[in-house]
Amino acid sequence: MKxxxxxxxxxxxxxRGNIDFNYLKALxxxxxxxxxxxxxxxxxxxxxxxxxxxIYHLEEKDDANFIASQMLHLEYVEKESKDNxxxxxxxxxxxxxxxLLYFLEGTFDSHFExxxxx
Length: 118
Fold this sequence. Notes:
Blueprint: E1 2-4, H1 7-16, H2 21-38, E2 54-57, H3 63-69, E3 74-82, E4 85-94, E5 97-104, H4 110-117
Parallel strand pairs: 2-5
Antiparallel strand pairs: 1-2, 3-4, 4-5
Helix pairs in contact: 1-2
């Protein structure tokens, strides 16, 4: 699990070279949208998501436990596509604080991913 709070966190994921470019582009677009909504005049490179919010990139099978532990706070589950790259975008609202979870299709067992979509 990778917590994304800054643009450099996304750059670290890009540097790995093993994550689909279109998925990373979607993460970056989400971050920029947050910057445009919450930024206070700082540069994009120095913007940090507010302390109460973050974006998680999930990549390990065990990260499914994190999703399961947040089920009471689940706001939505979206399966999205960007240039033939399928990924999930999950919104978690806890005490009026939004957390976004992203992961590529196939990260978890197919039964779990299908269950999330119901």
